[in-house]
Design a protein that fits this description.
This protein has 207 residues and is of the alpha/beta class. The strands form 2 sheets. Strands 1, 2, 3, 4, 5 and 6 form a 6-stranded parallel beta sheet that branches. Strand 4, helix 6 and strand 5 form a beta-alpha-beta unit. The protein is globular and about 45 Å long.
């Protein structure tokens, strides 16, 4: 973890996690479109992450929550509460981001806006893809994360539709991305552990 370990000190793993178990990291699929390839990318990232055995990683699919467009209903749909509960249970995130018209998908922005405090004081990494590696979408997402108090890590794996996909639909990642994926996960875990105390309830000292 290099720089982050120097920044926060050489803490024991359990001190960094501040929990009885492992940190919980959600890999969020940022698209709900028909024919999307985000599930392929998400499962690839999870496969790499699971081999590390340093946190509990899970796929979080926005499509599973059937979120309406924000402001178009009375907000009582069960998926909204379930979405917030899921986010609240996680310590950090990895966003799988697609570039649509130089930005993130509408479904991801909508899902982000359906929560607030559940995002606060957590860390996130980005894995993006597109014709330019999804770089412009990732930069837009960084601005959004700043508003909802997510600490986004610098390391950012970018995947090209031309070299990491066959026919722009079958995911065939190059091995060179493994270094950046693992470096990104190192940072997400370090920051997630460091931020967790900010979310722990404060108990009054008994005198």
């Amino acid at each position: 973890m290099g720089f982050l370990r120097h920044l926060f000190g050489h803490r024991k793993e359990e001190e960094l996690q501040m929990t009885n178990g492992k940190l919980k990291i959600g890999i969020i699929l940022g698209s709900t479109r028909e024919g999307r390839v985000s599930p392929q990318v998400g499962e690839w990232v999870k496969g790499i992450a699971d081999q590390r055995n340093d946190a509990d990683y899970e796929i979080v699919d926005i499509a599973d929550y059937n979120l309406p467009f924000l402001g178009t209903t009375d907000g009582t749909e069960p998926g909204i509460a379930a979405w917030n509960e899921k986010l609240d249970s996680l310590d950090g995130f990895v966003f799988i981001v697609q570039e649509y018209n130089h930005s993130i998908s509408a479904s991801l922005k909508n899902a982000i806006d359906f929560a607030r405090e559940a995002w606060y004081n957590k860390a996130a990494g980005i894995v993006s893809y597109g014709s330019t590696g999804g770089a412009r979408a990732a930069e837009h997402l960084r601005g959004i994360m700043a508003e909802i108090k997510i600490a986004d890590v610098r390391t950012h794996p970018t995947l090209s539709l031309f070299t990491d996909f066959e026919g722009m639909s079958k995911f065939t990642p190059q091995e060179l991305h493994l270094v950046n994926i693992n470096a990104m996960l190192d940072d997400v875990l370090a920051w997630s552990g460091a931020l967790k105390p900010l979310r722990l309830p404060v108990t009054a000292e008994v005198k």
